[in-house]
Amino acid sequence: MQIVVDLCVDIFCIVHDPINYFLFLFHQNASRRKHPVAVPNDPLVSIKQGFSVGWHPQFERFGNYPVHSQVVIMAYESSPWRFSFESRVNYICKRPTLAGGQVEPYGRGQSRKTWWRSGPMNVFLTGASGYIGGTVAVKLLEAGHLVTGLARDEERAEKLRARDITPVIGTLDDFDVLDGSARAADAVINAADADNPFAARVLVDALRGSGKRYVQTSGTSIVSDNAGGEGGGVVFSEDTPLEPLPEKAGRVATDRMICDAANDGVHSMVICPCLIYGQGLGVRHHSPQIPTFIEVAKSAGVPRHIGAGENIWSHVHIEDCADAFLLALERAPAGSFYFVESGEASMIDTNRAVGRMLGLGEETEAWPMEEVLHEWPPAMAHAMSSNVRVNADKARSMLDWTPKGPALFDDIEHGSYRVYR
After folding, report:
1. SS3 per-residue string spanning the chain
2. What is the pLDDT of residues 327-344, one digit of tens each?
3. How many domains does the chain have?
4. Same domain, 323 and 390
């Protein structure tokens, strides 16, 4: 069946534009011998205006078709034909024609600017002034993309402009802003709030039927066990059955809503990072966890952990985390979910590293939960006393994601966290 489909693709593209099609085949054959996936931002990918070429990793499994597995969508803006996906098999579907011979637009009146067009994209990014979003924005710009970032106010907007990010003033409660910005973009990344299902629904609804890519940020506290500082816990992969705690059920439901949108014309996916550490590249330099541990240790004169501190958290460096977002944007199948981690450590060992950095030695102190709850929000207190252990082998294998950042303890003792001494 795949051979027949490949042959139909070839014939269709040869008839429409034989010269550019054969140039594309020649180039992709050469590129593929060097690297197993399509090369991003390649000028030959958009050979002429209106010509869209895309690649989808699911199609590599059909056999030794080094060119055909990458030629997934090749269509003209003005053509009444397009290629789409159904059960991992390409098919051609006729787009209805409007009065005057115009072709019906894709997805609720949108022009056909989708993720299938490799090369520079305009990515709408929520959380652009935050820790994750800010670093993702820098990585997107470095890759040659344009970034439009949601900014709460003019002060944040000015900080985005200084970083070559086009700001859109608004919040996650401004649904009209979210809807319009998502429709105008080639792809959307929601890195603002994993626990806001309303904003996520507005964004994904704006993309239904468009084929555009949507990346939702989740977080591995969905696997929390409220262990109270005791060790153990399950190491979760994406296929491990999950019964979330009540306080995390809403986030899990949002993640599932996003993945299910793949059945309605959204190339959606979820990236689920764990404890993120390291210096961010954007406006915000650090996430709150490690700096909070440092401030507690400085205030008490000794590093403190909840209960025994034997509970274990997976962790990942911020730049490695951002790299996973870009790889997912390029390669992830629709409806996919990925944990992101590069190691794990217990809370007592993490706080020992804090003590060494502060010159307090190896001693730590147990911190009773009833005291913690007077200092920290309940969500943070219970999460930081849980076992939150995940495995990112799926991201490593499917996205070719390879963490390269410094190790957690090295970064605490000798790296970016020394500014908090």
Report:
1. CHHHHHHHHHHHHHHHCHHHHHHHHHHHHHHHHHCCCCCCCCCCCCCCCCEEECCCHHHHHHCCCCCCCCCCCEEECCCCEEEEEECCEEEEEECCECHHHCECCECCCECCCCCCCCCCCEEEEECCCCHHHHHHHHHHHHCCCEEEEEECCHHHHHHHHCCCCEEEECCCCCHHHHHHHHHHCCEEEECCCCCCHHHHHHHHHHHCCCCCEEEEECCHHHHCCCCCCCCCCCEECCCCCCCCCHHHHHHHHHHHHHHHHHHHCCEEEEEEECEEECCCCCCCCCCCHHHHHHHHHHHHCCCEEECCCCCEEEEEEHHHHHHHHHHHHHHCCCCEEEEECCEEEEHHHHHHHHHHHHCCCCCCEEECHHHHHHHCCHHHHHHHCCCEEECCHHHHHHCCCCCCCCCHHHHHHHCHHHHHC
2. 999 999 999 999 999 999
3. 2
4. yes
303 and 249 inside one domain: yes
Residues 175 and 272 in one domain: yes
Residue 110 within a domain:
no
- Taking only the tens place, the pLDDT of each residue in 64-121 is 222 222 333 333 223 333 333 322 222 233 223 223 333 333 332 233 333 344 468 9
Q: What is the pLDDT of residues 168-205, one digit of tens each?
A: 999 999 999 999 999 999 999 999 999 999 999 999 99
Residues 294 and 356 in one domain: yes
The Cα–Cα gap between 303 and 53 comes to 54
CATH of the domain at 407: 3.40.50.720
Give domain status of residue 106, yes or no: no
d(CA 222, CA 50) in angstroms, rounded, equals 42
Q: Is residue 275 part of a domain?
A: yes
- The percent of residues in the chain predicted with pLDDT above 90, rounded, is 71
What is the percentage of the chain residues whose pLDDT exceeds 70? 72
- Domain, as residue range, for 395: 122-420
Confidence of residue 152 (pLDDT cuts 50, 70, 90): very high
